[in-house]
Amino acid sequence: MTFTAPLPANEDQRLATLRDYRIMDTAPDERFDRLTAFAADLFDVPVALISLIDADRQWFKSHYGLPVSESPRSISFCAHTILDDEPLIVENATEHPQFRNSPLVLAGPGLRFYAGVALTADDGQRIGTLCVGDNKPRNFSDDDVTRLRRLAAIASDELELHRARMEAEASVNAQNAANLLKSKLLSSMNHEFRTPLNAILGFSQILELNMGKRLGREELEYVAAMKTAGENLLRISDSMMTMAQLEAEVVPFGTETVSAQSLIEEVYALHRPAAALNGIAFMRRACISAATLKADHSHLLRILGNFISNAFKFTALGGEVTLGCATEDGRVTFFVEDTGCGIAADRQREAFQSFNRLGREGSTVAGLGLGLAIASRLAQAMKGEIGFESRESAGSRFWVRFPAA
Questions:
Q1: Which PANTHER family match (predicted)?
Q2: Are residues 274 and 216 in the same domain?
Q3: Distance from chain centroid for Cα 65
């Protein structure tokens, strides 16, 4: 009788399942090593293995008491074990008709005793074994078989946990690669997009500044409309690029000491002209204390700028927008209040979602719905808090909060 095990009928599927674990030839893992050490101690044997049966070899994920990490499948006892759900017990190999002529018995380790239980995957495929061995014959009771089955079940569970970790890591790596590729693609597109757009904006400014005496009122209105449209496209391009970089986690963040009141004055000065153009009363509320915070100055400008731009968009002619800050309990809070249309209660949970215009998709208000999403991502990346309060037809108050320095 030959000692080489036949191939299982489902060998191709079994090997495919084994590959899914991504465990072959991986580094030693103490979770598996603890199991084999415990098995050797429990059964008082010198060798305990977690063996995975590949196409032409058996590879040991853990090998207690054995100096090698693999051996040919053709001489493997474990290759017989995976043919059945029942344990394979060989109490004295020299007297066993199937194994007495095995090289493992006649030479090598001089194997005499073997007991193994198949390791079964979630899909029912038997991919390997937990086994124990000795170089002298042994008796193995029914209670011993039960204990070995329990240890094999634990080993199978550990294999499933390993597979889950590998799948999670692969998913994260794939997502990171996709985000990086998207960032590079958008960066390239952004460059190709901005070059002609900047030329259009430049020429429109030349027409406004130098050609006013030659252009009629209607022509100047066309030039102004072209310039406004170009500036809107430029803002959209910048927003899409920023969001792609945030998703790919390639946005740089610095840390510096920022004066809260100086930031309010700077933001107010930047946005005051736009408020005048929109016919909006833009006010600022000074900080009571000389508060400072540690944050990225440019990103703070972007967050508050997005709050203000959003307020201007949804506040009617003659409305009010207020920029301010407050300090309390060691924290600095910046806020932007408006008397605009507010956000419907059933849409408020979507306020910081990307590409969400909160029910105003059909309106004439420009934008893609990225401003608040970008503000949220930037605030969270700087360990800040962000939120808002809003009532439909009564206005909104958006705020961002950081620990004081």
A1: GAF DOMAIN-CONTAINING PROTEIN, SLR1143 PROTEIN
A2: no
A3: 40
- How far apart are the C-alpha atoms of 216 and 203, rounded to whole Å? 17
Total tally of structural domains belonging to the chain: 3
At position 206, the amino acid (one-letter code) is I
Please check whether residue 244 is in contact with residue 182, taking contact to mean a CB–CB distance below 8 angstroms. yes
Instruction: Report residue 199 as tokens.
Output: 């030329």
Judgement on whether residues 20 and 164 belong to the same structural domain of the protein:
yes
* Residue 186 shares a structural domain with residue 265: no
- Identify the three-state secondary structure at position 92: coil
Closest among 90, 38, 42 to 62, alpha carbons compared: 38
CA distance 373 to 23: 40
Answer whether 85's CB lies under 8 Å from 72's CB.
no
- Quote the domain boundaries for residue 288: 256-403
Structure tokens at 322: 């207020």
CATH of residue 313: 3.30.565.10
Ordered alpha helix ranges (H), 44-136? 78-81, 103-106
| Contacts (Cβ under 8 Å, ≥6 apart) of 71 | 57, 58
pLDDT, average across residues 1-28:
92
Kindly report the length of the chain. Answer: 405
Beta bridge partners of 114: 90, 133
306 and 164 within one domain: no
**pTM for the predicted model, two decimal places:** 0.52
Domain co-membership, 148 together with 178: no
Per-residue confidence band for 176, with pLDDT thresholds at 50, 70 and 90: confident
Q: SS3 of 17, please?
A: helix
Residue 74 predicted with pLDDT over 70: yes
Distance of CA 308 to the CA centre of its chain: 31
Are the C-beta atoms of residues 5 and 83 closer than 8 Å to each other? yes
